[in-house]
Design brief:
The chain is mainly alpha-helical and 230 residues long. The protein contains eight helices and three strands.
Length: 230
């Protein structure tokens, strides 16, 4: 003989209503694409910021040393990265500006800005490697110190800072490549859009309250009688 009374619920059985409420409170689960987009943004920002800072720092350091022959003997001379070439510092600023501008533009504009960031990194690498063996800046200083326009620097040696600038360019280049690859899914700096790019609904404007004092004055200015009922 079967019983019409349902079996008692055990603690092991979850409550469907509570589970649904918990899932709703937790919000939608983050997808794999969203996680990848978030990680690519963090990586690009880190690489771009570190690359730009390193390029600017390296440009202020000594890149080459040498001696110039003067009347009193040999005069030691040094040349900083800015003396050798101003390209890495300039491109670092351009790259940093492009990295920020990526989040202010969309579609084709974002691709173009990402390409500018990539080219800034490549240009920094090329300029740093060319400047690593350059002696023109020290030759000019030697000519000025000796008073002989044909004088050249002697005992020329280079430091490792040009290669640090080249490494900074590589970081900017990687940031640009990340932006070119994943930038289409990155959010933009706009208050009218959510993270998924959907426009936010605009709030409906409230109708003016005719009983407010400012509305009464506006009605009088228009030549209307605010005490007359519509």
């Amino acid at each position: 003989m079967t019983s019409a009374v349902p079996p008692p619920r055990t603690d092991a059985q979850p409550d469907p209503a509570k589970a649904a409420k918990a899932a709703e409170a937790a919000g939608p689960a983050e997808t794999k694409e969203q996680r990848g987009s978030r990680r690519s943004i963090a990586a690009a920002l880190l690489l771009g910021a570190v690359g730009a800072a390193l390029a600017l720092l390296a440009s202020r350091q000594t890149w080459a040393r040498g001696t110039a022959s003067v009347a009193g003997g040999d005069l030691p001379l040094t040349a900083s990265g800015g003396d050798v070439t101003g390209v890495p510092a300039a491109l670092a600023i351009v790259g940093l500006a492009a990295l920020v501008a990526i989040f202010a533009v969309r579609r084709t504009g974002r691709v173009l800005v990402s390409l500018l960031l990539t080219l800034s990194g490549a240009g920094t690498v090329a300029a740093a490697l060319i400047g690593a063996g350059d002696s023109a800046a020290l030759d000019e200083k030697a000519a000025t110190a000796s008073g002989d326009a044909a004088a050249t620097i002697g005992g020329l040696s280079h430091t490792g800072w040009p290669y640090a600038a080249a490494a900074a360019g590589v970081l900017l280049l990687l940031a640009g490549l990340l932006a070119l690859t994943y930038g289409r899914s990155w959010p933009a700096m706009s208050g009218r859009y959510e993270r998924d790019g959907a426009p936010r609904p605009r709030k409906a404007r409230r109708a003016p309250d005719p009983e407010r004092p400012e509305e009464l004055w506006k009605a009088l200015d228009r030549g209307e009688d605010p005490t007359r009922e519509a």
